[in-house]
Amino acid sequence: MSRQKQRRKQIVERVGHLFLASRRLYGSPKITKMLGKEGLRVSQKTVARVMKEKGYFSRTVKKYKATTQSKHDYPVHKNILNQSFIAQRPDEVWMADMTFVPTQEGWLYLASIMDLYTRKIVGWYADRRMTKELVLKALDRAYDQQRPKESVLHHSDRGSQYASHEYQDRLQQYAMQGSMSRKGNCYDNACIDPSIASSNESSFISLASRPENRLNKASLNTSNVSITRKEFTHRLTIVELV
Prior knowledge:
Elements: H1 3-21, H2 28-37, H3 44-54, E1 93-103, E2 106-115, E3 120-127, H4 132-146, E4 153-156, H5 160-163, H6 165-173, E5 177-180, E6 196-199, E7 202-205, H7 229-241
Parallel strand pairs: 1-4, 4-5
Antiparallel strand pairs: 1-2, 2-3, 6-7
Helix pairs in contact: 1-2, 1-3, 2-3
């Protein structure tokens, strides 16, 4: 085999290895850079051609996706909590929020409710659509599990799902007092806000990153975006039973 063919074979093998090792996330620029660090100098054009020939197409994971729809005509509550992230007892203050997870079938939305005193997720629900039913089911689960004996201060952002008449009726049914973040101020809900972080082109759900959060027992890393919606919700269910 000629030296040129040997080099070609080496490039093809290394490109394939790096692409699969990245869980199909890396594109030609990143792989070209990594090959250079290995001492294999090759142009990005060559890497792109090899990837095209082999069918190596990178999967882009969005680093941000809005979950708050604050443009609506529903009434909103005052910010009673006012960034006072301290509670004196369980079921005194509940923090509600939504996040999203990339899966094989597309985005999976996760609504959760955290007890500010215990810092545990007391209710959650996941679905492929970001609707008021998503947050309603998370609230119902939290109430059914905790059955608070006294009034709860319920704090959320001012998104349409939480401001909807149906959700507010449920808060009244459960004798809860509403509190909402100020418009455009993410710090008002900072102690639960489960934003998606990005590290080395891999995305993971940071909702489970806090040691005091019961969800941290699950392996919720979604960096390879190979998890299915069913698998993800199953992991959450297992954690809830632990």
